[in-house]
Structure formats: C-alpha cells, structure tokens
Write a structure and sequence with these properties.
α1 packs parallel to α12. This protein has one domain. The longest helix has 22 residues. Helices cover 64% and strands 4% of the residues. The protein is mainly alpha-helical. A two-stranded antiparallel sheet has the order 1-3. Strands 2-4 form a two-stranded parallel sheet.
Length: 281
C-alpha cells in the first residue's frame, strides 16, 4: 500500500525516485512522531518532521491518478479511532484525511488557478492566508499549496505562464509552511530559520523530481538496503498506521501510565504542541 503516488501498479525491482523520496519523507515523519510521543519537551524532533509534509502532498499533485483507495480511507479512520482510545484530540483530522481531500479537489483547484496569472495569484493568496483551516485538517489549506506544486512540476511544459514562476511558487509555499509551523511549535527565531532552510531544500529537490529507476544504485547498495528502501517507498500507508499505533501504545502504557486513555478532546488544547496529544501528524 502506497500513501499517495497513484502511479503504475507494476513496480520494478530497481529502486525508483519515488522510493527514495518517500523513504526520506517516512523517516523524517517517524522522527517527528518519536519526538511527539517519547520526547515531547524536545522541539527539535518535531521541527525535523516538518520536511515530511511537502513530499506527501507534492506527490498527490504530481500523480496522474486521483484514485482514493479503500485502504487510505480505512487508515484515516483507524488513526481517528485511536485518538479516541488514547485520549488525543480529534481535530485537526489526521494527514490521511488531508490526502483524501487533496485528491478530491486538486484537479478542480488547478482548473481555477490556471485560468490566468491573476487567478493563480489569487488562489495562492487565499490558500496561504486561510490559516483557520489548520484547526480542521492537518496542515489545512497549506497542504494544498504543495499539491499544487506537484501538479505544476508534472505539467510545467503546458503552463500558461513562464516556468520560473513554478520556482517562485515553490518558494512561497515553502516559506508559508516553514514559518507557520515554526510559530505553531513556538520555535525561536534561529529554529524558524533552520526550518525554513530545511523545507526550502526539500522544495528545491522537488522542483527537479522526475520518475526514474536506479538499477546501478540498487546493485551497489545490496539486497537488504535496497529492500528497505523499496519497503518504505511502496508500503508507506501500512508503515504510517503501524508505527503510529505502536508509539501510542508505548506512550500510554509505559511513559504515561497515569494516563489519558479515553480522555479525548475535540481540539488540541491551546498552545499545547509539546505534550502527548495528537497534533500536526
């Protein structure tokens, strides 16, 4: 089960660019969640995890398919149910719901955005400023900026404006994401700049993304490393759900035995991004 590429179901034995990109996103996401559940007072773990979201949503827009697999919807509701059990907030809805919404609307959104340069600027401005949406869906409308980014890179040869504007848009999306997330987590000025550099570096890589196979790299890495990269790249949904459930169990029964089982709330407590309640996962 893959999280969001929507590409061909016939997968090669060689490592692909999708495998590398999604492995990176999965590793940074796990670092984020380990920090959230096991080291909630150490903000660095969470800030590293800010590099994950741009990859997942970029791939939504980059993909040709808009299929919404049953497994994706099921995974979203499994995580939502686990929030109830482990005493976490229900809103914002987890990232799998954000992915479903992005798949549903990205083509319609781009039809409006590509009606002209003014329409494109207006859509970008609206999505960037609609920060209240972050309280409903993980990453809110900022996630859609990265889905738009992926769409633009896929179709950059057929856009109604110069290609360099794709790079300008990418910089805007990365900047909005970086400083919004840094503010949510109470990051210092220095930490905020680090987050911006990290996310912008990811954006620069995404600007150059293309589907590719790396047979030579597969041979050089050997069987186990290559298999690990393929596993992370091609079973991201399963790994996402499983690792979150494992971390919730560890936190509930080992680190926080005094507990918060079934003590769920609708929204994340105000300013409470460092205690073990679900947020920005």
């Amino acid at each position: 089960m893959t999280l969001n590429t929507g590409e061909s179901k016939i997968l090669p034995n060689a490592i692909t660019s999708y495998d590398l990109l999604k492995s990176f996103a999965l590793i940074t996401m796990i670092i984020d969640h380990v920090g959230h559940y096991l080291f909630p007072e150490q903000i660095g773990w969470r800030l590293v995890g800010r590099m994950s979201l741009p990859v997942w949503l970029f791939l939504i827009g980059y993909a040709r398919s808009r299929e919404i697999p049953t497994a994706l919807v099921a995974g979203a509701f499994v995580i939502l149910a686990s929030n109830l059990v482990f005493g976490e907030n229900l809103l914002p809805l987890n990232i799998l719901f954000t992915i479903v919404v992005a798949r549903l609307i990205i083509d319609r959104l781009m039809k409006v955005a590509l009606d002209g340069l003014f329409a494109f600027a207006l859509v970008t401005y609206f999505l960037a400023l609609l920060t209240p949406s972050l309280s409903i869906l993980d990453y809110g409308t900022h996630a859609l900026l990265f889905a738009m980014f992926g769409y633009l890179v896929r179709h950059q040869d057929a856009l109604p404006f110069p290609r360099y504007l794709v790079y300008v848009f990418a910089l805007v999306a990365c900047t909005v994401q970086a400083f919004t997330q840094a503010e949510l987590f109470g990051a210092s000025t220095q930490q905020s700049i680090y987050v911006w550099f990290m996310i912008t570096a990811v954006g620069a890589v995404l600007c150059r993304f293309r589907a590719a196979e790396f047979s030579g790299l597969t041979r050089r890495l050997g069987i186990l490393p290559s298999a690990a990269l393929r596993l992370m790249g091609r079973h991201t949904l399963l790994l996402y759900v499983v690792h979150l459930l494992v971390l919730k169990v560890v936190a509930a029964w080992w680190l926080w035995p005094e507990g918060w089982l079934f003590d769920w709330h609708l929204f994340m407590p105000q300013g409470d991004h460092h205690t073990p309640t679900l947020g920005n996962l």
